Amino acid sequence: MSSSSSSSSSSQKDLNSSSSLSKLPLRKIPGDYGLPFFGREEFFNARMHKYQSTVFRANMPPGPFIASNPNVIVLLDSISFPILFDTSKVEKRNVLDGTYMPSTAFTGGYRVCAYLDPSETSHAPLKRLFMSALAARHHNFIPLFRNSLSELFTSLEDDISSKGEADFNDISDNMSFNFVFRLFCDKYPSETALGSQGPSIVTKWLFFQLAPLITLGLSLLPDVVEDLLLHTFPLPSIFVKSDYKKLYRAFYASASSILDEAESMGIKRDEACHNLVFLAGFNAYGGMKALFPSLIKWVGSAGEKLHRQLADEIRAVVKAEGGVSFAALEKMSLTKSVVYEALRIEPPVPFQYGKAKEDMVIHSHDAAFEIKKGEMIFGYQPFATKDPKVFENPVEFIGNRFMGEGERLLKYVYWSNGRESDNPTVENKQCAGKDLVLLLSRVMLVEFFLRYDTFDIESGTLLLGSSVTFKSITKATYT
Question: Which cofactor does it need (predicted)?
Answer without folding.
Answer: heme
